[in-house]
What we know:
- The chain is of the alpha/beta class.
- It has ten helices and seven strands.
- It has helices spanning 5-16, 22-35, 43-57, 71-77, 93-105, 119-122, 126-130, 147-156, 171-175, 177-184; strands at residues 61-65, 85-90, 112-116, 135-140, 160-168, 189-197, 204-212.
- Strands 3-2-1-4-5-7-6 form a seven-stranded mixed β-sheet, with helices on both faces.
- α8 links the parallel β4 and β5 (160-168).
- It is globular, with a radius of gyration of 16 Å.
- The structure holds ligand 659 and magnesium ion (MG).
- The site of the ligand CNc1ncnc2c1ncn2[C@@H]1O[C@H](/C=C/CNC(=O)c2cc(-c3ccc(F)cc3)cc(O)c2O)[C@H](F)[C@H]1O has 21 residues, from β2, α6 and α9.
Amino acid sequence: TGSSRPQRILKAVQKNATKGDPQSVISAIDYYCRHKEWAMNVGDDKGLILDSVLTEVNPSMALELGTYCGYSSVRIARLLSPNSKLITVEFNPAFAAIARQIIAYAGLQDKVTIVEGASGDLIPKMKERFGLKSFDFVFLDHWKDRYVPDTKLLEDCGLLRKGTVLLADNVICPGAPEYLKYVRNNPRYESRYYPSVLEYTKAEDGLEKSVFLG
Ligand SMILES: CNc1ncnc2c1ncn2[C@@H]1O[C@H](/C=C/CNC(=O)c2cc(-c3ccc(F)cc3)cc(O)c2O)[C@H](F)[C@H]1O
Ligand SMILES: [Mg+2]
């Protein structure tokens, strides 16, 4: 049987990027997915917005829902301060295995913990498992119809604090209409839309940044 798309992305990283150089890993994936075969990474256009929001927040504890190949894990982890950590959740073991190798190739394995499993099962166990009080930053990029239930679960599990920043990918394409309704009509969130394009295309997409007000 042939290789999978994530396996081909890993091969492109090993061929074209420099070990221990996160930017070269990001550029290798962006080049491959723009010129060879499309993949659902947040990509370079929206990635610049992710970078700027992340730099502004400078989180000690970051959470990502939906690792896929680890592209946004590398984008996030490369900008974290020393001793800051990213926990990324992925329930497909094949994807998690590829992501682990891409994150290690970038030299970021000490800053990123990949947790295999479903967000709905793992979120309630985060406090006890990682001894953390709350997250400073959450990147939502998993199944779009799970953004609302998982945001409510993070609230209910006391994993959000006054000022926690949620950043959601794909709020236009494929779209997360229920999520936009939830955060935009909710007095507990201050939301702002960042217009951009769907990764590696000219189609409209964007990121929604929502600050939890406590
Ligand atoms: C539900 N709980 C989960 N827990 C742990 N891992 C999970 C969970 N749910 C999914 N995963 C994991 O998170 C990933 C899922 C990402 C889904 N992303 C997309 O569908 C997505 C789609 C497009 C897209 C746009 C236009 C078009 F024509 C075709 C596609 C663009 C994007 O940027 C996306 O992010 C992974 F695959 C899955 O195992
Ligand atoms: Mg996405």
